[in-house]
Amino acid sequence: MNASAPDAGSHASRVPAGSLADTVLDRLTAVYPTAADPQRAVGMRAYMKDVSPFLGLTTPVRRALSRTVVEGLPRPDEADCAEIALRCWSLPEREYHYFAVDYLRRHVRHCSSGFLPVTRQLLTTVPWWDTVDLLAAHVVGALVAADRALAAEMDAWSVDEDLWLVRTALLHQLRYKERTDTKRLFGYCARQAGHPDFFVRKAIGWCLREYAKTDPDAVRAFVARERDRLAPMSVREALKNIGA
User: Fold this and answer.
1) Cβ within 8 Å of residue 87, ≥6 positions away
2) Which of 146, 88, 92 is nearest to 118 (CA)?
3) Rounded-to-integer distance, Cα 235 and Cα 206, Å
4) Other CB atoms within 10 Å distance of the CB of residue 62
5) Phi/psi class of residue 50: alpha, beta or left (left: φ > 0; alpha: ψ in -120 to 50)?
6) SS (H, E, C) the chain
7) pTM, full prediction
8) Angle at 1 between CA 27 and CA 43, to 5 degrees
């Protein structure tokens, strides 16, 4: 975990209360604990390297409970999404963060490019791959696809000191397929080819492997050109399904 990331609770005072957010959080904090499994929570926390405490909810149980939380509620606007996500992030248990990620994935189409700073806060607060990867591919990716001017922000993130922002820049095009900006994809990978952190090296291999489903020849050519600079793991991941 990035030791420099701020604690989630430090943002609570900056999150304004709103009627929809109040309803969601009231329901959420009433419903989720009813299915808590303390024994399972211990294992989940250990698996996630002690990034945060857990309630011990399995994914199917959590999603079923989430449906009851949002049942009958109106569609959120951008301010609602920000309030709900940030207030969920201020709670210690990881399942509340998962709820926020799922909520944003569902409603990101209602958010403008101005939502990116909120997403950055989520990415850099209690960061770990379980939330970062979904936010990168489904929230940041959607925001950039809707407003290509945000690509300049991805350029900045791709060289940021925060490894989770670097990982997000690498992964934000995962679902773009033919719409992928290959200059940026390959440029980010080349720029961070020698990054010392496992999560960045893994992300390089992952985004290349995913784009290889669209253009395997381009990925092979890039790997051949940069093989001496890329980490062996990045190369293995990139070529996993297409061969050398």
Assistant:
1) 12, 15, 21, 25
2) 88
3) 10
4) 18
5) left
6) CCCCCCCHHHHHHHCCCCHHHHHHHHHHHHHHHHHCCHHHHHHHHHHCCCCCCCCCCCHHHHHHHHHHHHCCCCCCCHHHHHHHHHHHHCCCCHHHHHHHHHHHHHHHHHCCHHHHHHHHHHHHCCCCHHHHHHHHHHHHHHHHHHCHHHHHHHHHHCCCCCHHHHHHHHHCCCCCHHHCCHHHHHHHHHHCCCCCCHHHHHHHHHHHHHHHCCCHHHHHHHHHHHCCCCCHHHHHHHCCCCCC
7) 0.91
8) 60
Token digits for 83? 């309030």
Decide if 80 contacts 118 (C-beta within 8 A).
no
The tokens for 98 are: 């998962």
Q: Tell me which residue of 103, 115, 88 sits closest to 12, measured CA to CA.
A: 88
What's the first-to-final CA gap in the chain, in angstroms? 33
Looking at residue 196, its amino acid is P
Q: Block means of pLDDT (10 residues each) for the chain, length 244 residues?
A: 39 54 97 98 98 98 98 96 97 98 98 98 98 98 98 98 98 98 98 97 98 98 97 96 82
- Token look-up 């207030």 returns 87
Instruction: Map tokens 């999150």 to a residue.
Output: 15
* Contact (CB, 8 A) for 104 and 66: no
Amino acid occupying residue 121: Q
